[in-house]
Amino acid sequence: MSKKAVILLSGGLDSATVLAQATVEAYSCYAMSFAYGQRHFHELDAAKKIAAYYKVAEHRVVTIDLGAFGGSALTADIAVPKDRTEDQMNAAIPITYVPARNTIFLSYALAWAEVLGAADIFIGVNAVDYSGYPDCRPEFIEAFERTANLATKSANFKLHTPLIHLTKAQIISLGMSLGVDYALTTSCYDPTPEGKACGHCDSCILRKKGFVEAGVMDPTEYD
Hints:
The chain is an alpha/beta fold. The chain has helices spanning 13-24, 42-53, 86-91, 101-116, 138-151, 168-178, 202-214, and strands at residues 4-8, 28-35, 58-63, 120-122, 158-160. It has a single domain, classed as 3-Layer(aba) Sandwich (Rossmann fold). The N and C termini lie far apart (45 Å).
């Protein structure tokens, strides 16, 4: 019988790759996505397609409202930065950072994993091409894993972060070797109403750069 794992699935490139990795490792995958008040809600449509593509055991979309707190261009009426250089992206934590988002997402994943009897949680955080988000650092992951094992009756949880030390190009190369269909994924922070990627936000720029460096055709439909 396959081991169960909860996979945080955003609909983006990284989380799709992580789901593919968990599938290859013969986990029975339970995918969790969030409608958290994000402006790029098209990612949920992508997450549903990816979950169906991989025939996950179950896919849950949890509704929470991080927009109630604001403080991010992804959840509030704040302009998404466009056409920034990598130096500008790395100069400070960007306004697209959603306060405590991964802490909250992982807490939900932990609760579901405990109910499922799953000891493994996968998340596609990345500490290389990650736009400076503090909750993508290895130190945060290590601290949350310790907290998870203190806060639950199971006390045997493992957080899997297979992409954490990879560049975007390396992630794409890994995904291609795993058979990921990146046409199903979306990365844009500020898509058109039809769901086309803007091509100018930090996430689009990092995505385009990754495909170029990996030598792989970018299947993204840009506006």
